[in-house]
Design goal:
Elements lengths: L1 H18 L3 E2 L12 H13 L3 H23 L8 E4 L7 E3 L2 E12 L5 E10 L5 E6 H6 L1 E3 L18 E9 L8 E10 L5 E5 L3 E2 L6 E3 L8 E4 L13 E2 L4 E2 L6 E5 L23 E3 L4 E7 L22 E6 L5 E7 L11 E2 L4 E4 L11 E6 L9 E2 L1 E11 L11 E12 L5 E4 L3
Parallel strand pairs: 12-25
Antiparallel strand pairs: 1-10, 2-4, 3-4, 4-8, 5-6, 5-9, 7-8, 9-10, 9-11, 13-16, 13-27, 14-15, 16-23, 17-22, 18-19, 18-21, 19-20, 20-23, 23-24, 25-26, 25-27
Helix pairs in contact: 1-2, 1-3, 2-3
Length: about 425
């Protein structure tokens, strides 16, 4: 009898699986479990194989509900409308930050309806046990969202997603403790303009990548260096897509701009308009691993003054740069290098710590700094950025408000040694052993 009860439960489980759909919020059963013909056949088959009275009662109850809901679905067929297309183009790669496991990725939401839609909530959960990872709504959702085609100078994100428009939600979230999360699910709720209609989209589980981050040596010596990056900046690396060869890509998803300051947080030792007097200008940039040089660009002049900087076409954004092919097959990019400072050539084999060139002020740069990132292809623009972890550094504090850069940072009570971690946003670090 115990085995037959197990069979009963198996068929009921198959019904639940067969009736679960991707959208819901208006149906009588949670999750929009509208029973299909296939699901009803599963229940009918279960009746023929069920010998316990409790099992038959379960199946008959489910079958009755199924026909009722099927009728409801048919009656509402005229109300079915197009909605949101949800896509995650790049599988998230977990990485370590502040001794926790994080993922950074983007959720693309495209309005395929004829209506104006307002995204009101985006919730992320562990697919295995339902634990909440993050829930964005109101200001937190607005801050994480960009609508493609709107100007980064626009102060407010438009309230509604127009027909045909795409929104991108940028997520940097900590995974639940334990390190066992292998997939995430997303619930997106939206309303339709000028109506009381609310819809909720439940996505299929999103598998996390099993690829490991590149573990590298520091690209610079000493410090203090401010590791500048943020998901929220409208024109920050994290949000600037390039569509070079038919696919929109984020080469700067995990890029960091390293800016040197002194112990008081000052950026310059003299005239703040003279590039060569900025801390960090001319400092050595170092190979982060034993690697092969696969690309070099030199010959672009550094403006003498910060005020003389000009804008560049995308192909010249990187300024003078060096690209290394790392042992794991990924590519490390060093950008905005000083003119004439590059000491390597394409094809050279370099060892960890070798000087590649000097930090400079070339390309699309607001001041002397090292732009560093790792990507999946040998292209400054047509590649997807991947996370990396720096083998060893000390975290001294953080600029919680980056507009205060140039003044004293928010110091930690004690420096924290970080091993195999990605630096926190706007963290102040030192690379001395």
């Amino acid at each position: 009898m115990a085995n037959q009860d197990g069979l009963d439960n198996l068929w009921i489980g198959q019904w639940k699986a067969a009736t679960r759909s991707r959208e819901g919020a208006t149906d009588p059963l949670p999750g929009n479990r509208v029973m299909t013909l296939a699901a009803r056949l599963v229940l009918i088959r279960s009746l023929s194989k069920t010998h316990t009275s409790s099992g038959r009662r379960k199946a008959l109850t489910m079958l009755g509900i199924g026909f009722t809901l099927a009728g409801t679905a048919y009656a509402q067929a005229q109300e079915v409308r197009n909605g949101l297309d949800v896509e995650v183009p790049v599988a998230p790669v977990p990485f370590h930050l502040n001794d926790a496991l994080y993922v950074g990725y983007e959720v693309h939401l495209t309005n395929f309806s004829d209506d104006r839609l307002k995204i009101t909530d985006l919730s992320v959960r562990d697919a295995s046990d339902g634990r909440q990872v993050t829930d964005l709504r109101d200001r937190s959702l607005t801050a994480a969202t960009m609508i493609v085609g709107t100007s980064p100078k626009q102060k407010a994100v438009p309230e509604y997603l127009e027909p045909g428009q795409r929104a991108v939600v940028f997520l940097d979230v900590a995974l639940p403790e334990g390190g066992h999360t292998s997939a995430l699910t997303h619930r997106i709720t939206y309303t339709v303009a000028d109506t009381d209609a609310t819809s909720t989209v439940f996505t299929d589980p999103l598998k996390l990548s099993t690829v490991k981050p590149s573990i590298i040596a520091p690209p610079l010596r000493g410090g203090p260096w401010v590791a500048i990056h943020s998901t929220a900046w409208p024109r920050g690396h994290r949000r600037v897509f390039y569509t070079i060869a038919s696919h929109a890509k984020l080469p700067g998803r995990f890029a960091i701009d390293f800016v040197k300051v002194d112990e008081q947080g000052c950026l310059t030792r003299g005239d703040p308009d003279i590039a060569a007097q900025m801390y960090g200008f001319g400092d050595d940039v170092l190979a982060v691993a034993d690697a092969t040089v696969v690309a070099v660009r030199d010959g672009m002049q550094d403006p003498t003054k910060i005020s003389e900087r000009t804008t560049h076409k995308p192909a010249d954004d990187a300024g003078n740069y060096v690209t290394l092919r790392l042992p794991d097959g990924r590519f490390a990019f060093y950008e905005h290098l000083e003119n004439g400072s590059i000491r390597v050539a394409v094809g050279d084999k370099v060892t960890t710590g070798k000087v590649l060139g000097s930090l400079g002020f070339t390309g699309e740069s607001t001041g002397p700094h090292l732009h560093f990132h790792i990507a999946d292809a040998n292209s400054t623009l047509n590649a997807e950025s991947l996370p990396f972890e720096i083998r060893n550094y000390r975290q001294l504090g953080q600029y919680k408000d980056i507009s205060r850069l140039g003044t004293q940072w928010d110091r930690d009570e004690e420096a924290t040694v970080r091993r195999n971690q990605w630096p926190d946003y706007n963290a102040v670090v030192n690379f001395d052993p």
